[in-house]
Specification:
By secondary structure, this protein is an all-beta fold. Helices cover 0% and strands 34% of the residues. The chain contains no helices and ten strands. The chain has strands spanning 27-29, 35-41, 47-53, 56-58, 65-66, 76-81, 84-90, 96-101, 106-107, 114-117. The strands form two sheets. Strands 1, 2, 3, 4 and 5 form a five-stranded antiparallel β-sheet that branches. Strands 6, 7, 8, 9 and 10 form a five-stranded antiparallel β-sheet that branches. It is globular, with a radius of gyration of 15 Å. The protein starts with 26 loop residues before the first strand and ends in a 20-residue tail after the last strand. The relative contact order is 0.16. The model has no long low-confidence stretch (mean pLDDT 95).
Length: 137
């Protein structure tokens, strides 16, 4: 469910069609005017994505794109510029995993993730931020 403010009024609650594990939290970011991206951990422990752009939901109001993976945390997401998204999650092996949208492709693939190694404590969600284009922390 989502509630929206358009600068003048609140819009009614809208059902976006997703089911997430109890206590799970979506990650949301915007890379520009009238653009919103949402990623969630689904009931299948895969990451799912949808976008809002210029008045339309993609792939549809209730549809979501499967981003693959089998994860053990909620996703974290950031944008450091137009057409750029970076997502991090904790894998089932407790390592940090990353995927990115570069404006035309998901890297390393639509359903793949790159291991960044390390060890993420159980029951924690990794965080990601950017304070300038090309910089992720």
């Amino acid at each position: 469910m989502i509630k929206s403010w358009d600068g003048n009024q609140w819009w009614p609650w809208a059902d976006l069609g997703a089911q997430i594990p109890f206590g799970s939290k979506p990650a949301v970011t915007a890379w520009g005017k009238e653009r919103l991206d949402i990623v969630i951990r689904g009931m299948d422990n895969a990451i799912w994505h949808k976008a809002y752009s210029n008045g339309n939901w993609y792939p549809s109001v209730t549809g979501w794109n499967n981003m693959g993976g089998v994860v053990s945390s909620d996703p974290a997401m950031v944008s450091w510029g137009t057409n750029r998204l970076d997502i991090v999650v904790r894998g089932t092996d407790s390592k940090l995993y990353h995927k990115a949208w570069d404006g035309s492709n998901w890297w390393p693939s639509p359903t793949g993730y790159t291991s960044l190694g390390g060890y993420i404590l159980k029951d924690t969600t990794p965080k990601i931020l950017s304070w300038k284009p090309g910089r992720l922390d």
